[in-house]
Design goal:
It is a multi-pass membrane protein. InterPro entries: Beta-barrel_TonB_sf, CarboxyPept-like_regulatory, OMP_b-brl_3, Plug_dom, Plug_dom_sf, TonB-dep_rcpt-like. It is found in: Cell outer membrane. By secondary structure, the chain is mainly β. The protein has three domains: 104 residues, Sandwich (Immunoglobulin-like); 96 residues, Ferric Hydroxamate Uptake Protein, Chain A, domain 1 (Beta Complex), CATH 2.170.130.10; 570 residues, TonB-dependent receptor, beta-barrel domain (Maltoporin, Chain A, Beta Barrel), CATH 2.40.170.20. It has three helices and 44 strands. The strands form seven sheets. It has a 22-stranded antiparallel barrel. The relative contact order is 0.11. The N terminus is likely disordered.
C-alpha cells in the first residue's frame, strides 16, 4: 500500500508541474552488498525543489522514465531500509536519453521518507549544430517545388542549372530522409525541381556534420524530410495547384526564331494516405506535375581580340514536361524492441525541349549560323530501402542495419540541325546513362550518463555505365573519335566513431571517419583523347570536433573543426559533349579528381523572449579544387569555346553568416539572413586534353560577395496568413569572370478553412521578373557576356484538404 501511495503522489505532481518532454532516463537499482535487484524502489526526478515525475522499479530493479523536459535535475532513488542516493543530471539538446546503469543503495537502519532537492531548472538548447525549417510556414513559395522552397533558406542559393549552393559552394550533399538518393543526382540536384514542396515536412541544414554522416559535401548537408503521419487510424491529405509562369518578357528575341513560351501553365495534383495501428504504419504519397516552361533564354555576346568576328547569339529553349513521383512503404512494429521499415521511392519524368540558337555577326547583324534541335528525354529515379532497428533494454541503446538501392537513368535522343554557310544538315546523338548505387550500413548507439557513443560502418558501391551513339549527317560536326561507351566504378568502405559529452556548461562532440575509396574508369579504346583508363585508390581520415560553451540559458558559443571531400558527379565526368550550343561546347572530364576541404567555424546564438540571432564565421582551405574553365578552340572549321571541368590546385573560402528571427507584434514576425563570403583560388597552370591539348594559366583570383534575404510574416484576420520575401544577390566573382547582381520579390497568402481541415494558397515567385543571371567570362583572346532570362516568374493558386 505504501508503494501505491508513493506512485500516486508522483503521478499527480508530474501532471501539475511540467508538460511532457523528450528526455528518457533508465537504470537498475541494486543492493550494494548482495548485488541483488531492489524491486519497487522509488525513483524521482526533481527540479527547483519540486517533484517533476517518477516511477517505481520492476521486479528486476529496472526503471524507465520518459517525457522529461530539457533541464538540470536531480534523480533520487530510495527504498525502505536503505540510504537514498541523489544523482545530478542534465538533459540537453544533444543527448536526451540517459542510462544511469547500476545504482547501488546501501542498507540503513533508518527509513528515508523525504528527498532533499537543491537543483535548479535550466533549459538547454544550443541550436548551433543544425538548422531546421518548416516548409508549411514558407507561404511565399508554397505552390512551387522543393527548389523554390530552398531559395528562402539562410545561406542557400539556386543557380540557373538548378544546382544548390550552400554558403557559396555547389559542393553540398543533398539527402532525402537522411539518405543519399538518385533523385538528387550524386552531383547535381535537378530532380528536386520535380518534387512539390507540398510533399515535404521540413528541410534541415547541417553545416558541420558529425563523423556519422558521409564525408561528402564541402559546404555541409541539406536533408529533405518527407511528411509522415504519426496519428493512429486512417488519415490523409489531397491537394491541387495551378500556376502560370513567364508573365512578362525581359528582352526581345533575335529576328526570325520561334516565339518564347509565355503564360506557361502548370498543374500539380497530390495525395497522401496513411494508416497507423499499434503494430504497423502504412504510407503512400504521390504527386504529379504537368507544365510548360522557358528552360533557358540566354543572350550571349562573344568579342575577340585576335581579329575573329564578334558574334551575338540567343539560346532559347522551350520545355513541355510531365512527371510523377510515388513514395510507398510501411513500418512494422514487431514488438517494443524491434522495428522493420521498408519503403520505395519512384520518379518518372519526360520532357520535350525545342531549341533555337541563332548566331548573328555583331557588326552588321547578318546571320552567321542557325541551330535548332528537338530533344526527347526520359529520366527515372528509383530508391528501395530496408531498415531494421533493435532497441536494447536501456532506452537509447540501439543498433540499426540498413540497405539502400538507388538508380537514376537518363535516356536522351537529341537530333539537331545546323544551317550555315558551310553546311546544312541534321545530326543526332543518343545518350543513355545509369547511375546505380548500393549502400549497406550498420549504426550502433550506446547512451552514457553524460552523453553517448556512436559506432558504425558503411559500404557504398557506385557504378555509372554510359552508352553514346551518334548518327552524323553531311559535313557533320560530331566528333567520331570519342568512342561510344564508358563506365565509372567507385567503391567506398567506411568506419566511424563519434562521442558526445554534455554537461551543465560545456557540450563536446568529437569523432573520426575512415573512408577507403577505390575508383576505376574504363573508357572505350576508340577514344583518342583519353587513351588510358583511370584507376586509383585513396585512404582518408575525416575528423570532426564540436565544442559548445553555454554562457547562460540564452547565450551559447560553439567552435567546429571538420574535414570533408567532394567527388565529381556524373555530368562532370562524362567524356561526351552536349551539342545544345555548338559554339559553347560543354564536356566532362573523366580524369577529374576529388577535392578535399578543411573547415574551421565559430558560431554564437542568443535567444530572448521574442526572438533569436545566430552569428557564424567560417574559414575553409581547399586542395585540388575542381571547376569549369573556358578555352578557345577551332576543330570543326568554326570558332568554338570549350568549357570543361579541371582540377585547379589550392584555394580558400572565408565567410560570415547572420540569421535572425523576431516577433515584432502579436501578428507580425520578421526573420532573415545575411551571408558574406570571399573566395580565393591560387595561381595555377595546367593543360586541357579535349578537344586538343591546350595549356591554360590562371593568376591568383580573389573575390567577395554577399546576399540578403528578408521575410515578413503577418497573421491577418479571418484565419489568413501573409508572407513577403525579398532576396538580393550581390555581384560575385567566378573563375575567369563574374556574375552580376540580381533581385527577387516573392509574396504569398494562405487562408485556413473548415476548422483547419482545408487551406487555400496564393503565391507569386519573382513577382517583378528580375531574377535572371548575367555573367562576364574572360578567356584567352576572347570575352563572353551572357544574360539568361530563364523562367523565374510564377504565380500559383492551390488548395489542400485533410481527412
Amino acid at each position: 500500500m505504501k508503494h501505491f501511495f508513493s506512485l500516486l503522489f508522483i503521478c499527480i505532481c508530474s501532471i501539475q508541474v511540467f508538460a511532457k518532454g523528450e528526455g528518457v532516463i533508465s537504470g537498475r537499482v541494486i543492493d550494494s552488498v548482495t548485488k541483488e535487484p531492489l524491486p519497487y524502489a522509488t525513483v524521482t526526478v526533481n527540479s527547483e525543489e519540486q517533484l517533476v515525475t517518477g516511477t517505481v522499479t520492476n521486479v528486476d530493479g529496472r526503471f524507465t522514465i520518459d517525457g522529461v523536459n530539457e533541464g538540470n535535475y536531480t534523480v533520487s532513488c530510495s527504498f525502505v531500509g536503505y540510504n537514498s542516493k541523489e544523482i545530478p543530471l542534465l538533459i540537453g539538446r544533444l543527448n536526451t536519453i540517459f542510462d544511469l546503469g547500476r545504482i547501488t543503495l546501501e542498507p540503513s537502519s533508518e527509513n528515508i521518507d523525504e528527498v532533499i532537492v537543491s537543483a535548479k531548472k535550466e533549459i538547454v538548447s544550443s541550436g548551433l549544430d543544425k538548422k531546421s525549417f518548416d516548409v508549411a510556414k514558407n507561404v511565399s513559395q508554397s505552390g512551387g517545388s522543393v527548389l523554390d522552397a530552398m531559395r528562402n533558406l539562410p545561406g542557400v542559393t539556386i543557380d540557373q542549372e538548378s544546382k544548390v549552393l550552400l554558403r557559396g559552394s555547389d559542393k553540398v550533399s543533398v539527402l532525402i530522409d537522411g539518405k543519399q538518393s538518385s533523385l538528387t543526382g550524386f552531383g547535381n540536384q535537378k530532380g528536386l525541381d520535380n518534387i512539390p514542396a507540398s510533399s515535404i515536412e521540413k528541410i534541415e541544414i547541417i553545416n558541420n556534420p558529425s563523423a556519422k554522416y558521409d564525408a561528402r559535401g564541402m559546404a555541409g548537408i541539406i536533408n529533405i524530410i518527407y511528411k509522415k503521419e504519426k496519428e493512429t487510424g486512417f488519415n490523409g491529405e489531397a491537394g491541387f495547384n495551378f500556376g502560370l509562369g513567364e508573365l512578362s518578357q525581359r528582352k526581345s528575341n533575335l529576328p526570325n526564331i520561334m516565339d518564347k513560351y509565355s503564360f506557361t501553365p502548370k498543374y500539380n495534383p497530390s495525395i497522401s494516405l496513411n494508416y497507423r495501428t499499434e503494430k504497423a504504419n502504412l504510407f503512400l504519397q504521390s504527386d504529379g506535375i504537368v507544365r510548360s516552361k522557358v528552360n533557358s533564354n540566354e543572350f550571349s555576346t562573344r568579342k575577340y581580340s585576335d581579329g575573329t568576328p564578334d558574334v551575338i547569339s540567343q539560346f532559347l529553349e522551350n520545355r513541355t514536361q510531365q512527371e510523377y513521383n510515388i513514395k510507398v512503404g510501411f513500418d512494422w512494429f514487431m514488438n517494443d524492441k524491434n522495428t522493420l521499415t521498408l519503403f520505395a521511392l519512384f520518379e518518372d519524368e519526360y520532357h520535350i525541349d525545342r531549341g533555337h540558337v541563332p548566331y548573328d555577326y555583331l557588326t552588321n547583324g547578318k546571320r552567321k549560323r542557325f541551330w535548332t534541335w528537338a530533344e526527347d528525354e526520359n529520366t527515372r529515379f528509383i530508391n528501395y530501402a530496408a531498415n531494421f532497428k533493435h532497441k536494447f533494454a536501456e532506452p537509447g541503446h540501439e543498433i540499426e542495419a540498413g540497405y539502400l538501392y538507388t538508380k537514376g537513368g537518363e535516356d536522351e535522343l537529341f537530333p539537331f540541325t545546323d544551317s550555315s554557310a558551310v553546311r546544312n544538315s541534321t545530326d543526332e546523338t543518343h545518350l543513355k546513362v545509369d547511375e546505380i548505387v548500393s549502400n549497406w550500413n550498420v549504426d550502433y548507439v550506446k547512451p552514457l550518463r553524460s552523453g553517448r557513443v556512436e559506432l558504425g560502418t558503411k559500404v557504398q558501391l557506385r557504378r555509372i555505365p554510359i552508352s553514346y551513339k551518334i548518327n552524323p549527317g553531311e559535313n557533320s560536326i560530331l566528333d567520331p573519335n570519342l568512342g561510344d561507351w564508358s563506365e565509372y566504378n567507385e567503391n567506398i568502405y567506411a568506419l566511424y566513431c563519434n562521442y558526445v559529452f554534455e554537461s551543465k556548461k560545456v557540450d563536446i562532440e568529437g569523432g573520426m571517419r575512415l573512408e577507403n575509396t577505390g575508383v576505376k574508369y574504363d573508357i572505350d579504346p576508340e577514344n583518342i583523347y583519353y587513351t588510358t583508363n583511370d584507376d586509383y585508390n585513396y585512404l582518408s581520415l575525416f575528423p570532426n570536433v564540436r565544442v559548445t560553451y553555454k554562457i547562460n540559458v540564452g547565450n551559447k558559443l560553439s567552435a567546429f573543426v571538420n574535414r570533408r571531400v567532394d567527388r565529381p558527379g556524373e555530368f562532370e565526368l562524362r567524356p561526351f559533349p552536349k551539342y545544345d550550343d555548338p559554339e559553347i561546347l560543354k564536356t566532362g572530364n573523366p580524369y577529374l579528381r576529388p577535392q578535399f576541404t578543411n573547415t574551421f567555424e565559430l558560431a554564437y546564438k542568443t535567444n530572448w523572449t521574442n526572438g533569436s540571432v545566430y552569428l557564424s564565421g567560417f574559414y575553409r582551405t581547399i586542395t585540388d579544387i575542381f571547376s569549369r574553365i573556358y578555352t578557345n578552340g577551332n576543330t570543326t572549321g568554326e570558332t568554338i569555346i570549350n568549357t570543361i571541368p579541371q582540377n585547379l590546385g589550392k584555394g580558400s573560402n572565408l565567410g560570415f553568416e547572420l540569421a535572425f528571427d523576431h516577433k515584432i507584434t502579436s501578428f507580425w514576425n520578421m526573420n532573415g539572413s545575411f551571408l558574406w563570403y570571399a573566395n580565393q583560388i591560387n595561381a595555377f597552370s595546367g593543360t586541357s586534353i579535349y578537344p586538343q591539348p591546350q595549356p591554360f594559366h590562371f593568376e591568383e583570383n580573389k573575390s567577395n560577395t554577399w546576399n540578403l534575404k528578408l521575410n515578413n510574416n503577418l497573421e491577418l484576420p479571418w484565419n489568413t496568413e501573409m508572407q513577403a520575401t525579398a532576396i538580393y544577390y550581390a555581384p560575385d566573382i567566378i573563375p575567369q569572370g563574374k556574375t552580376e547582381d540580381r533581385f527577387s520579390f516573392d509574396v504569398g497568402l494562405k487562408k485556413i478553412l473548415m476548422n483547419g481541415k482545408a487551406e487555400l494558397m496564393l503565391s507569386a515567385v519573382d513577382l517583378f521578373n528580375t531574377f535572371g543571371i548575367s555573367q562576364v567570362i574572360e578567356g584567352e583572346n576572347f570575352t563572353l557576356n551572357t544574360e539568361n532570362y530563364y523562367e523565374t516568374q510564377v504565380i500559383t493558386l492551390g488548395i489542400k484538404y485533410k481527412f
